[in-house]
Amino acid sequence: MHILTANPPSADARLRYGPDPLNFGDLRLPTGNGPHPIVIVIHGGFWRAKYDLEHTGHLCAALTDDGYATWNIEYRRIGNPGGGWPGTFEDVAIGAKHVRELASEYGLDLSRVITLGHSAGGHLALWLAGCHKISEGDPLYVDDPLPLAGVVSLAGVCDLRRGWELDLSKGIVGDFLGGSPGEVPERYGAASPAQLLPLGVRQALVHGTEDDNVPYEISEHYYENAVAAGDKVELVTLEGAGHFEVIDPGSKEWPSVVGAVRSLL
Q1: Helix, strand, coil % over all residues of the chain, rounded to 5
Q2: How distant, in Å, are the alpha carbons of 32, 194, 198, 231 from that of 225?
């Protein structure tokens, strides 16, 4: 698809949030003085190094044109030194918390912050919403996580156990966590949003029924379990849509994505 290869509109600033070369993000700001609501965007690519934040720049630019500041974060992935478990989680947690340091200089409203992620990024966006439940002492424990008003998962890998069972992308979940649910159950317990329910944060799950990368059933089953656990969750079903329409501002599905963001902010 065009959005996967075309250069996105330029960001207003590329800023570092941590010490690793991949600890940076692209900040885009809407017109006006703010304070602006902010969407923390996390790209997908099955947590692999070959996929970076550039392709979600189109999504970010469109949301920024619609009045939202966007913070599109890069992070260490499988194939990068320190990527995978637990480095990927450490990076997205630090990258999200960095919004606090950006708020005063760039006019950001810390009471109106959501995460939004696509595919593997949808997993990480949901994980950020639930990481406050991880016990101190766990390798994925996050000290003083950034409070969120909500999370939007776009074709997200909401349930890592199910992702492993379905052998997504030739066993990528096992590669990501360093083993199967039977071999490293504690990692799945702390890393999978489905295992952290209820998250205690409003959620919108946007997923196409013809997605052959991350099957729709993953969001459908997660939704049922999240509602049963007491979370406020909306499942936005896109009939006939595949995996990438949800990040393409030119697609007919795009208004559903914007609607999900508006419903939370």
Answers
A1: 40, 20, 40
A2: 41, 8, 9, 9
Asked if 151 and 74 count as a contact pair (C-beta separation under 8 A), the reply is no
Residue predicted with more confidence, 75 or 33: 75
For residue 76, the model assigns a pLDDT of 98
Residue 88 burial by Cβ neighbours in a 10 Å radius (0-12, 13-18, 19+): buried
DSSP code, position 132: G
CA distances from 80 to 50, 228, 244 (A): 9, 38, 24
pLDDT over 80 (residue 115): yes
Query: Letter for the amino acid at 226?
Result: A
Token pair of 195 as six digits: 């295992």
Sign of CA dihedral 254, 260, 261, 263: positive
Residues 6+ apart with CB under 8 A from 19: none
Kindly report the CA angle at 149 between 144 and 154, in degrees rounded to 5? 105
Token pair recorded at residue 190: 């702390």
Whether the predicted pLDDT of 1 surpasses 70: no
DSSP tag of 209: T
Bridge pairing between strands 36-42 and 13-16: unpaired
C-alpha–C-alpha distance, residues 265 and 180, integer Å: 37
Q: What's the 3-state SS for 83-131? A: CCCCHHHHHHHHHHHCHHHHHHHHCEEEEEEEEEEECHHHHHHHHHHHH
Residue 73 phi/psi, 5-degree rounding, is: -100, 140
